């Protein structure tokens, strides 16, 4: 009887280690950022205008900006900067459509492809073409859909597009225009279409003399906001989008199609080790007892 109790304790310990290993190493997180497409890597693409490119970043030859600083905060998570100075929402939509069709801008296409998360920081330049904020917001939604359709078609999993709430400029009529656009962005926030990355909370005192582009200190502040969002706020949102009902460390959406495992069983092959532990930690077959 004593050996049986010892065996049961050992099996329980193995199962507990398996579950803990799955939660630490499976789809959920790499450097605190959820592995949204479950490919054992995290890629964040930041798409937008001159604030993404880094105009005003005098420490880095007027480029780099907050994407460069954000990338420095991670060891393995990749941050790709796709900034186009002066671009409007309509122009960027056209660029994306051409890139996704393969007719131009291969670097833009490659930058988006395979991304877990795409941050869209764009819209402020539309003010100078006398378009109402609602027209810009509609273009932002079209851009998000184009990205999701393209990534879904190419990889089987749509990237999660996060629409940033823009840092406020300090230029006459542009500031209230951007404030109105920001209101539309915030109002449209849902778990499936997050739009609560609050760059608008970065102080306008951190702008350069042109009253629109951040100083190096401003870009530092934007990077801090983005880092906190990716590692603190977004994981809570993704937990609702990517449930793991059997608590095995593999998102339900990927169990059957990607690994052949049962999303209703934490241990599909019944060998005492969770599916997530076998796939991501021990690298054994979750469908074959061993």
Plain-language structure description:
The protein is of the alpha/beta class and 290 residues long. The protein folds into two domains: 43-241, 3-Layer(aba) Sandwich (Rossmann fold); 245-285, no CATH class. It is built from ten helices and five strands; from the N terminus they run αβααβααβαβαβααα. The protein has helices at residues 2-25, 50-53, 65-72, 89-101, 106-112, 133-155, 174-187, 216-241, 252-259, 275-282; strands at 43-48, 78-83, 117-121, 160-165, 197-198. It has a five-stranded parallel beta sheet with strand order 2-1-3-4-5, sandwiched between helices. The longest helix is centred in the last third of the chain and has 26 residues, at 216-241. The protein is elongated and about 70 Å long. 44% of the residues are buried.
The main pleated sheet reads as: 5 strands, parallel
Distance between the termini: 25 Å
Average pLDDT, all residues? 89
The assigned CATH architecture of the largest domain is 3-Layer(aba) Sandwich
> What is the chains' assembly state?
single chain
Supply the number of helical segments: 10
Structural class: alpha/beta
Query: Helix-strand pattern, N to C?
Result: HEHHEHHEHEHEHHH
CATH superfamily of the largest domain: SGNH hydrolase
CATH topology grouping of the largest domain: Rossmann fold
Number of domains: 2
């Amino acid at each position: 009887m004593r050996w049986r109790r010892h065996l049961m304790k050992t099996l329980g310990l193995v199962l507990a280690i398996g579950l803990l290993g799955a939660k630490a190493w499976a789809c959920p997180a790499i450097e605190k950022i959820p592995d949204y497409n479950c490919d054992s890597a995290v890629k964040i693409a930041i798409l937008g205008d001159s604030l993404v490119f880094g105009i005003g970043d005098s420490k880095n030859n007027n480029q780099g900006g907050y994407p460069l600083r954000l990338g420095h905060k991670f060891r393995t998570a990749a941050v790709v900067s796709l900034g186009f100075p002066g671009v409007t929402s309509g122009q960027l939509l056209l660029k994306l459509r051409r890139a996704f069709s393969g007719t131009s801008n291969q670097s833009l296409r490659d930058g988006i492809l395979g991304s877990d998360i795409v941050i869209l920081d764009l819209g402020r330049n539309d003010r100078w073409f006398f378009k109402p904020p609602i027209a810009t917001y509609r273009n932002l939604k079209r851009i998000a859909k184009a990205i999701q359709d393209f990534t879904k078609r190419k990889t089987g999993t749509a990237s999660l597009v996060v629409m940033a709430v823009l840092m406020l400029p300090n230029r006459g009529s542009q500031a209230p225009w951007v404030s109105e656009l920001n209101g539309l962005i915030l109002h449209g926030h849902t778990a499936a279409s997050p739009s609560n990355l609050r760059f608008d909370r970065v102080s306008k005192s951190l702008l350069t003399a042109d009253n629109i582009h951040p100083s190096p200190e401003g870009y530092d502040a934007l990077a801090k906001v983005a880092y906190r969002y990716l590692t603190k706020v977004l994981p809570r949102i993704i937990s609702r989008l990517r449930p793991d009902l059997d608590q095995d460390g593999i998102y339900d959406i990927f169990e059957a199609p990607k690994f052949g495992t049962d999303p209703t069983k934490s241990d599909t092959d019944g060998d005492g080790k969770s599916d997530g532990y076998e796939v991501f930690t021990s690298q054994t077959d979750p469908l074959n007892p061993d």
